[in-house]
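wait is this the right file?? whatever heres the structure
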């Protein structure tokens, strides 16, 4: 808790993790983690903070990628349908993205956690905060889109 929040008392963090169902007490001071990620509820003020950070990160990536040739470009890709899919398939795709997207993000998190732990143990002073964000979008049928493009960029 000290490492990631700096000023939140550990007892308060544990109480919050129990409240949202992310951990369960096993007894003897041990807990089992039930959820690797946490998505704040829509009314939680943390949701607005998380969204503003995500918007900022995406904007900075796009800004970096718009710089002249020769500048380091960051990963930024999308995939979409040019003609649309059946509503039932859209529900299936949402479930597929949630499952596989979470798996992929956990793989990236494992990799980053290993590298971060090494940097801390090696007392590397200059470190680069970075990450990957993923999102799914849905457009209304009458909304303009990228119909004339290939479906991936």
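ok assuming it is, sequence goes like this
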């Amino acid at each position: 808790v000290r490492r990631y929040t700096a000023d939140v008392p550990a007892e308060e963090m544990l109480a919050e993790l129990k409240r949202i169902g992310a951990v369960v007490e096993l007894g003897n001071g041990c807990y089992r983690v039930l959820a690797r990620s946490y998505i704040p509820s829509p009314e939680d003020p943390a949701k607005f903070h998380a969204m503003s950070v995500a918007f900022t990160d995406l904007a900075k990536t796009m800004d970096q990628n718009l710089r002249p040739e020769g500048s380091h470009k960051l990963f930024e890709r999308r995939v979409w349908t040019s003609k649309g899919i059946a509503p039932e398939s859209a529900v299936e795709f949402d479930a597929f993205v949630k499952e596989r997207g979470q798996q992929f993000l956990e793989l990236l998190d494992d990799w980053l956690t290993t590298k971060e732990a090494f940097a801390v143990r090696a007392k590397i002073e200059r470190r680069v905060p970075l990450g990957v964000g993923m999102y799914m979008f849905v457009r209304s049928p009458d909304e303009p889109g990228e119909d004339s493009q290939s479906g991936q960029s």
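The mean pLDDT is 87. so i think its the right one actually
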